[in-house]
Amino acid sequence: MISYIISNFKSNPFLKTLYLQIFLFFLLIQIRSCFSSSPTPFIFPLKTQILRSPSKLQFQHNVSLIVSLTVGTPPQNISMVLDTGSEFSWLHCNQTTRDNQPDPTIFNPNQSTSYKPIPCFSPTCVNKTQDFPIPPSCDSDNLCHATLSYADASSSDGNLASDTFHLGSSGNISGLVFGCMDSIFSSNADEESKTTGLMGMNRGSLSFVSQMGFPKFSYCISGSDLSGLLLLGDSNVTWLTPLNYTPLVQISRPLPYFDRVAYTVQLQGIKVSGKLLPIPKSVLVPDHTGAGQTMVDSGTQFTFLLGPVYNILRREFLNQTAGVLRVLEDPNFVFQGAMDLCYRVPLGKTRLPNLPSVSLVFTGAEMVVSGDRVLYRVPGEIRGNDSVWCMSFGNSDLLGVEAYVIGHHHQQNVWMEFDLEKSRIGLAQVRCDLARQRFGVGL
């Protein structure tokens, strides 16, 4: 899924074909805000004897990472897509209740006594929305109105508001700003209707993590049992493999194709089975327009590379798998509009052969994608007695995306730490299912 909701080049052609749930765990956390002039402590009491631990949430994943929590007074159950590629969090709002029954896919502001709409001339509306590509406007009631748009023509309209978000039984965060969207158009309405909204987690001033003041957060996605772990705050995990850090790339001046609040890192090269590909350094850095940045995004399933780099990777992977895999000879089939290197694998084959790994080399860190994750089985595609598997790297040029995007499929079994204080991302190879057990989540 590509959910760059508030960026000019954000794309989302295959949003949410399967949804799985994230369940909240109740822990004590005391985090001081690093983003405001008067730091505010946040305390979440817990039912166990673990002290001073970050908030821990477990999730399951496929195309989207889903967080389940409650919002409002009294609390209403909602679910949100966890998206490090978006700044603004929003909920699908409706002022009526279907058959007088709670609907977890819709938030009803009329049923919340803590809900507050935000006026269009308020400091929040005027000053904190400057990174929105479409500036907010005033509606007929002088409320702050926002329009969010997708590159695949999906969009949502609604008002900025604030309400109380509940992380656990008594961890209440009052006054958190979000979009209460009453008009939503989606290219995949059936799947879109299964969640209430989106949790924006990038570095923008109105992102969920920025508003809560967490100095860092981490997540780990299992590649074996579709589970995961999200930590809000400093983990201080002594048993975790030492992290390798890559600095965030920051450009202060506005550029038309550079998202300044994204988690941008510097891609320095790509290896296939340890062989460094002959990629010119010039195509891996943003140009004078900002096109060509490399973003780490939990809201995107796969990884997308600019055309010249994708073609080099495609040729090398094709060469190294010659005689091992049978290429799908169908020029009319391009998986999700961007992946055109596909193979036929006999249906009776329970395991893929040993395949080349692909390594993404960043400044100071490396992300290794094992061979079994380089290919992805296309759901529902059968050719005779064969299933169809495609390389899980796509050509971003085919999507109209002027960027490199590192999706969560290639972040499996990698501890991902987003350090906002030191402007860096930490990576470490780890068994995420075992990490979840070590934290006592889901047991």
UniProtKB/TrEMBL annotation:
Organism: Gossypium darwinii (Darwin's cotton)
Any one Gene Ontology molecular-function term assigned to this protein's record: aspartic-type endopeptidase activity
Residues of the active site: D83, D297
Keyword hit for Glycoprotein: yes
Peptidase A1 domain location: 65-428
PANTHER family per UniProt: ASPARTIC PROTEINASE PCS1, ASPARTYL PROTEASE-RELATED
Family note: Belongs to the peptidase A1 family.
Keywords noted in UniProt: Aspartyl protease, Glycoprotein, Hydrolase, Protease
Protein name as catalogued: Peptidase A1 domain-containing protein
One GO biological process term: proteolysis
